[in-house]
Design brief:
This is HET-domain-containing protein. The chain is an alpha/beta fold. The chain has 13 helices and 9 strands. Strand 6 and strand 7 form a beta hairpin.
Length: 296
């Protein structure tokens, strides 16, 4: 994990026990984002994305933190091994952050009263992206900022509003219940209306939420990546609600299912109230060459 010094912009490697307290930036990518190579060359100050880095560092310094992590410039994305390790570790990194700054670049809060978030929370891009789901849930403390870096609320203070918009239970947002206490179908439903630029990321962005790891295979397609994610989940839980889904076409026209596995989180839309039901007797689950072998 690389961290940026908020005063000197020095980048250092941080491992395990020597990891200093740090802030972490959650944002949606825009034009002229600063890559790891841009940052290393020191010629990124003219890029629009550098303003986010500067502002996040200033805020972290104000909050008494010396280090900050930002996904655009702290990961060498030219290394497939490093990118895979980072994505598999990202949920943990967000959960360990002292503070998470959620930057809503398309929101302007009038009069510093937080009204901007209340008015725009249902349309701001941050609440529609796949990656920001874990960035909302994992950190203990999240502070929301508008486009001018004006604070407009915290995850705790805005929990009721966020829960209403995202359908994530209050107990999960407030930290009184862990995500693992909710059914697989419920957690999938939280991502059902979210999108990712790359198709495979709709699976990769959910690994931390389900506590699984798997290799990244960009180019395999979103449905294949999501199938692999579901198979990994099947290996770790007796929660059979993973099979409780239906496409909208199936619901409306009573169509036939072509697979026991869903094609995307969108197939779990409306299934957020399903609760965990584990079998009385545990039996092995396996994917064979002719399909899923499971006792229900």
């Amino acid at each position: 994990m690389r961290l940026i010094n908020v005063q000197t912009f020095e980048v250092r490697e941080s491992y395990g026990l020597d990891k200093a307290p740090y802030a972490i930036l959650s944002h949606t990518w825009g034009v002229e984002e600063v890559s790891f190579q841009d940052f290393q060359r020191g010629g990124a100050t003219h890029l629009l994305g550098f303003r986010k880095i500067q502002s996040a560092c200033r805020r972290a310094l104000r909050d008494g933190l010396e280090w900050v992590w930002i996904d655009t410039c702290c990961i060498d994305k030219t290394s497939s091994a490093e990118l895979s390790e980072a994505i598999n570790s990202m949920y943990h990194w967000y959960s360990q952050a002292s503070l998470c700054y959620a930057y809503l670049g398309d929101v302007i809060a009038p009069n510093n009263d937080g009204g901007g978030l209340h008015d725009h929370i249902q349309s701001t891009r941050w609440f529609t992206r796949g990656w920001t789901l874990q960035e909302l849930i994992a950190p203990p403390q999240v502070i929301f900022f508008d486009a001018n870096w004006t604070p407009i609320g915290t995850k705790t203070g805005l929990a009721h509003l966020i829960s209403k918009v995202t359908h994530i239970p209050l107990s999960c947002l407030l930290g009184s219940a862990r995500p693992s206490e909710f059914s697989v179908a419920a957690r999938m439903s939280w991502a059902s209306l979210r999108q990712c630029t790359r198709g495979e990321d709709i699976a990769y962005c959910l690994m931390g939420l389900f506590g699984v790891n798997m290799p990244l295979l960009y180019g395999e397609g979103g449905s294949k990546a999501f199938s692999r994610l579901q198979l990994e989940i099947l290996q770790t839980t007796d929660d059979q609600s993973l099979l409780a889904w239906a496409t909208r076409d199936t619901i409306q026209h009573h169509g036939m299912l072509t697979s026991v596995l869903a094609k995307s989180p969108a197939d779990f839309y409306g299934f957020g109230d399903i609760q965990v039901v584990s079998p009385d007797i545990r039996r092995p689950t396996a994917m064979t060459n002719i399909g899923l072998h499971i006792s229900l």
